[in-house]
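--- STAGE predict ---
source: upstream dedup step, 1 unique chain passed
mode: sequence only
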Amino acid sequence: MTSSLFVQSSPISSDVEDEFDRWYDTVHIPQVVARVAGVIRGTRYVENPTSSEASATETVRRRLTIYELDNDDVVTTMDSLLAAMKDGSLEASPLIDREVNPPQISAWQAG
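--- STAGE serialize ---
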């Protein structure tokens, strides 16, 4: 079976969305793939409004990154991810919203 990590995150404001996206695509995802055991690829998605009402309001759109794993041992991969965050192997960004919409990580397995 194939497992993946789903990470939802948001920039701190709509003013920094482009900078946040640039950092995530050119710094964060490559670092995760290079430094977190088991991660082979990351693909990022930007939330689209699902109604005309939602698209008319100026809100920060949530991001979803799907990290594909080369194994089904999500516990070890999560431990490696948390260790890399803690020891500074992964560059932190002040652009990540950690208060209103903090990052959320979940593990999924193909069924």
